[in-house]
C-alpha cells in the first residue's frame, strides 16, 4: 500500500506543479497536451524524490497523456475496463512493490539447462517465473522437479497452462518471498536491481551450502559470483552464478 500511496502523491504533486505553472504563465503553459506532458514529467520527477522503483518513472510519464489520448479517441467504456483488467492481471503485484514482468530469452533457458545438468540437480526453482520462459523448456528437457513461483494472475495462468502436461513441473501462484529455498539444488531468478539485496539475504539464509543460485542480468551487491556467463542474445544477458 505504501507504494500506491507514493504513486498517488507523485501524481498529486505533478498536478500541483502543473496548475501553478499554468496560473503563473497562462500564455506559455496552455493546451491539454502540453499540460499533460508537464504533469507527467513533474510526477516522474517526484517519484524519484519519493524513491519509487525505476519503472514508475515511465508509468508517471505516460499516465495522464495516455488518459487524454483515450478520451480524445472516444473509446467505448468496455475497452477501458478491459485494459485496466489486463494490466492488473499482468502486473498484479507491482503496486505492492513487486517487480514487473521480465521475459528470458531461449538462449538463457538453454544456458540454465546446461548448468542444471552440470550440477546434476534434482530440484529446481524459478523465482518470478513469468510466462515460464525458463521453467517450461527446462521441464521439457530435464526429468527433474521444477517449481515455478509467480504471483501475477495472467502470467501464472499462462505458465500453468503450458505445464499442464509436464508432470515434473509445479506452478505455484504465490510470492517468491513465501518460498523456502532450502529444498532446491539450483535456484534461478530474473528480477530487478531494487530487490537484489533482499534476495541475497534470503538466498544466503535459506539455500544449503554447495547449492547454486543464478541471477539473470542483476548481481547481488557485495557478493562475488563463482562465474559470469555471457549469453549471446539480443540483450547480451549476463548470468551471475553464486555458489552458496
Automatic annotation (TrEMBL):
The keyword Transmembrane applies. GO terms for molecular function: protein-lysine N-methyltransferase activity. Keywords: Membrane, Methyltransferase, S-adenosyl-L-methionine, Transferase, Transmembrane, Transmembrane helix. The chain crosses the membrane at residues 54-72, 78-95. Coiled coil: none annotated. One of its GO terms (biological process) is methylation. SUPFAM superfamilies: S-adenosyl-L-methionine-dependent methyltransferases. This is Class I SAM-dependent methyltransferase. It comes from Candidatus Methylobacter titanis. The lineage of its organism: Bacteria, Pseudomonadati, Pseudomonadota, Gammaproteobacteria, Methylococcales.
